[in-house]
Design the sequence.
């Protein structure tokens, strides 16, 4: 991608509206995310297991509900799904703000409302990813994905920076109230979108089979499946370490205030990773290399004893984290059909955010016995080993022939129907043979 093309998606009206809506909602999300961790640290004694449980309830719905959410995004208006989810987020954030303002919030209340927010995130993820692709021509998809990732990380910097005074003063209700207002304004921008109406493919198979077709479609469009596996390992063993940052700041660096600083440093690095990925074509080996470098930065972070070194390592980790995810999301989006986009992007959502709760809960429990440093170091080692394995394997795959035919969504569905019909025919023939044998006997 030439440098001038990295920002070309902003020429299109619908992407401009989505960009502004993401700016509002994502800034509120990051302020709320940091504030939730700060609130649970205050109410739960900064226990690493409780921090892991908070991440578990937020991201678990993404693991459980992403496949049906992806199917819904391929059958129902993606714009309507986004609006419904934004309304739910506004209501839940407003309720959380009221509980904290009334000094009535308990860890149990926070976990229940956080789970509700996670349900909304699970359904809005595939629809949002598909809307990005629908808002620009296919040729500008790389620009759109890169800009969306860069914006996500710009707010990842601004959010923790704005949340730092709230962590110091304990005024978390202001963060939740802002999120409710920001999401309501973002819904107004989404309402003004003029994306083409969804034309779902005709599929006669059952719901479970239609969800499985998303996996089959990803498998038929290499290298979508190994790309998803890279994102899964990154989330499960790498990104999940973020649940331990409040504990690391207090126990390893001596001051809880460094928690917000590390989140800001991660966002600063992530902006660079998201933007630079827009200047090069997506590639699987580049994603594997980024996973190795992410693991190296995380390993160094686990060994640091000074705040400046910890901030630098988090910035490097943020850079390679979003360089990898932006690169591979673009690669997957370019390979798939629009009729299957919601389902395949729901798989991306499962691998990206859906596995974080399991990794976070496991890291929180392991940190109690092994310590924070050792737990983060083990996760870093797994990232390095898997990244090297995929880098070595991908280098030995035959290059994909330009113009090589891969089955479309309708062809995949048709093949599934033909296979089912053939199996029924074989069953009838076996039944006739058994009947003939019985008569002879």
Sequence:
């Amino acid at each position: 991608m030439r440098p001038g093309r990295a920002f070309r998606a902003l020429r299109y009206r619908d992407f401009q509206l989505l960009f502004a809506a993401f700016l509002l909602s994502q800034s509120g999300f990051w302020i709320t995310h940091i504030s939730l961790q700060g609130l649970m640290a205050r109410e739960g004694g900064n226990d690493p297991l409780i921090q892991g449980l908070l991440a578990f309830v937020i991201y678990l719905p993404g693991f459980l509900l992403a496949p049906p959410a992806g199917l819904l995004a391929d059958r129902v208006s993606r714009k309507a799904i986004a609006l419904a989810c934004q309304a739910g987020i506004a209501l839940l954030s407003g309720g959380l703000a009221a509980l904290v303002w009334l000094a009535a919030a308990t860890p149990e209340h926070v976990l229940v409302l956080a789970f509700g927010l996670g349900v909304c995130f699970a359904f809005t993820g595939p629809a949002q990813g598909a809307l990005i692709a629908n808002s620009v021509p296919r040729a500008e998809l790389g620009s759109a994905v890169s800009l969306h990732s860069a914006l996500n990380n710009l707010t990842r910097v601004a959010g923790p920076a704005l949340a730092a005074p709230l962590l110091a003063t304990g005024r978390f209700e202001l963060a939740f109230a802002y999120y409710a207002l920001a999401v309501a304004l973002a819904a107004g921008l989404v309402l003004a979108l003029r994306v083409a109406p969804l034309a779902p493919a005709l599929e006669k198979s059952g719901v479970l089979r239609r969800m499985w077709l998303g996996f089959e479609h990803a498998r038929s469009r290499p290298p979508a499946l190994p790309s998803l596996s890279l994102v899964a390992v990154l989330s499960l063993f790498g990104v999940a370490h973020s649940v331990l940052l409040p504990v690391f700041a207090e126990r390893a660096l001596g001051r809880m205030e460094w928690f917000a600083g590390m989140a800001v440093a991660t966002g600063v690095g992530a902006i660079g990773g998201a933007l630079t990925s827009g200047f090069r074509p997506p590639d699987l080996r580049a994603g594997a290399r980024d996973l190795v470098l992410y693991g190296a930065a995380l390993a160094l972070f686990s060994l640091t004893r000074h705040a400046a070194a910890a901030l630098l390592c988090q910035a490097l980790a943020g850079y390679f984290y979003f360089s990898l995810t932006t690169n591979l999301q673009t690669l997957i989006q370019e390979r798939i059909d629009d009729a299957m986009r919601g389902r395949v992007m729901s798989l991306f959502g499962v691998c990206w955010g859906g596995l974080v709760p399991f990794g976070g809960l496991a890291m929180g429990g392991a940190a109690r016995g092994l310590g924070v440093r050792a737990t983060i170091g083990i996760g870093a080692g797994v990232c390095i080993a898997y990244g090297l394995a995929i880098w070595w394997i991908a280098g030995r795959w035959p290059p994909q022939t330009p113009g090589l035919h891969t089955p479309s969504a309708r062809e995949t569905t048709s093949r599934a129907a033909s296979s089912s019909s053939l199996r029924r025919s074989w069953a009838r023939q076996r039944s006739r043979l058994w009947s003939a044998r019985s008569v002879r006997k």
